[in-house]
TrEMBL record:
This is Integrase. The lineage of its organism: Bacteria, Bacillati, Bacillota, Bacilli, Bacillales. GO terms for biological process: DNA integration; DNA recombination. PROSITE patterns: TYR_RECOMBINASE. Keywords: DNA recombination. Residues 5-179 form the Tyr recombinase domain. One of its GO terms (molecular function) is DNA binding.
């Protein structure tokens, strides 16, 4: 199992989005975009239906891994992007947001991994996997708000240290301190 990382640079996020649109599909682009903006685990993300995002102001799910209820706001910009996607793809309220081309279910975790990996390879972005979406959300959220306790709560982690390691912050801090450490 490879060690996946968050995408730390905004220009790399843009490269990834362009790569998904060029080499994969609009569905795959939206999976990435929604994933880095709401921070769900891939299993929970893939099970989202159109109505889960477009009805009401919050998404309410029972997380697969923890069996806990999670409720979180969908910001207006993301909701607008999802509406555009739903119209373009002609999706109905009950349909999965990321429908498989085979059958009525959503794409699989394996398929999600393949498309993310392909787009990352084409964009020359290393260490990308399905967990990259959630890790990127966490990393960017921390960079914007600098509140590890809040992020720990959002990600349902049991302690701040796990959250720091998860988003790659511990490694970043070690690298930064060692860069200027010479006697």
């Amino acid at each position: 199992m490879k060690n996946v990382q968050p995408i730390r640079r905004l220009d790399h996020i843009e490269k990834m989005k362009k790569s998904l649109l060029k080499y994969c599909s609009y569905r795959d682009y939206m999976m990435f975009s929604i994933g880095i903006n709401i921070g769900l685990r891939i299993g929970d993300l893939l099970k989202l239906r159109v109505k889960d995002i477009l009805e009401g102001t919050h998404i309410v799910i029972v997380e697969q891994k923890t069996d806990k209820i999670k409720r979180f706001l969908v910001n207006p910009q993301l909701r607008k992007e999802v509406r555009k996607y739903v119209r373009k793809m002609n999706l109905k309220n009950e349909q999965y947001l990321f429908p498989s081309r085979k059958g009525n279910g959503p794409i699989t975790r394996v398929q999600a991994y393949r498309v993310l990996n392909k787009a990352a390879e084409m964009a020359d972005i290393p260490d990308v996997g399905t967990h990259t979406l959630r890790k990127t959300f966490g990393y960017l959220h921390y960079q914007k708000f600098k509140d590890i306790a809040l992020l720990q709560q959002i990600l349902n982690h049991s302690n701040p240290k796990d959250t720091m390691i998860y988003i790659g912050l511990t490694q970043d801090l070690m690298d930064e301190t060692l860069m200027d450490f010479y006697f």
